[in-house]
Amino acid sequence: MSSKHQRLILLAILALAVLLRLGVALYLGDSTPPAKDETSYSMLAARLATGHGYSFDQPWYPFTPANTPTAHWSFLYTAFVAAIYAVIGLHPLGARLAGAILTGILLPFLLYRLSRRLFPDAPPLKLGRLTFTL
Hints:
Layout: H1 3-28, H2 37-49, H3 75-88, H4 92-118, H5 125-131
């Protein structure tokens, strides 16, 4: 398979991966479901974006008191969502769309690159094709 043909297939895989994720993000809309992990991250990100740090404004689960810094949730994803909220306001759809684009591009591409390095004799696009639905 030629290098140009491989590039076109990889671009098609990346486009499909992004489109599938964007479809799910749009389907879920601009709200967070109650009692889901997404709500916790959204609330933490909103507080972080408004200068309250990694804390909740009310008691959260049995182990996190109100207005107390917490380390029970991933700080990097919370900071990513907080940066989006700081730019566009409290819109979970914005975070979903940004996440859909980033993961739709990065996951298949990085797996493609990894498979080329680990298995130089195997067609690297086989693994890339599998990830567009992850």
